[in-house]
């Protein structure tokens, strides 16, 4: 159950479950002459034994994330950082958190990261799809990123609250209104497909050149196996009704590719 579900004045950070914090912030984009917002979100999780940060946040939100983590961890250390992929909004604050939490280990598809961060090479633990991290009372399982923008992108699934963390997948912009940045999809009107199409084409540029419908069978199979209660995109509101949002997201993905592409001669 989402904490504070009826409160229409939520701003990030927000506790979305007893042991899951949604933090980060938004940036302005323009859509058809209107200013809209795009999340740059991260999630922190507490287990009975260990803690984890999923993505690091954009550097412009460093101070607010720092304060949010202090409050959420309550004096506990950060044990793991899972970076979904090597892109600034997702790994830009990695050096900051690795310095602040000297026992933290970096996990994920991070086989190249010793080249980027040789000073923390001994704290990097490459992991593959199907491997998991036990936080105590909850396990974070790495799963394939069906919708990804980089080759090293991975998604993650929390077995306790059944939350699926999908990086750039399921991205949704939202109207710039007070408090909207911290609302779930069920706490606000359903988005116009244009609000999804905009971010799809910015974050997942392949949708402009590939038939996204070819990916739907793999996505449906993954969702059937995991049965997530929530879907948590980095660039969108927390999806607390996946069954309602999935058809809208799929429709927006399919809209990005032109109906007629030039034929090879």
How does this model look, in words?
By secondary structure, the chain is an alpha/beta fold. 24% of the residues lie in helices and 25% in strands. The protein is built from 7 helices and 13 strands. It has helices spanning 62-73, 88-91, 94-100, 113-116, 193-203, 216-226, 242-255, and strands at 14-17, 20-31, 34-46, 51-54, 80-82, 105-108, 124-126, 132-134, 139-144, 154-158, 163-165, 174-175, 230-232. The strands form 2 sheets. Strands 1, 2, 3, 4, 5, 6, 7 and 12 form an 8-stranded mixed beta sheet that branches. Strands 8-9-10-11-13 form a 5-stranded mixed beta sheet, with no helix packed on it. β2 (20-31) and β3 form a beta hairpin. It is globular.
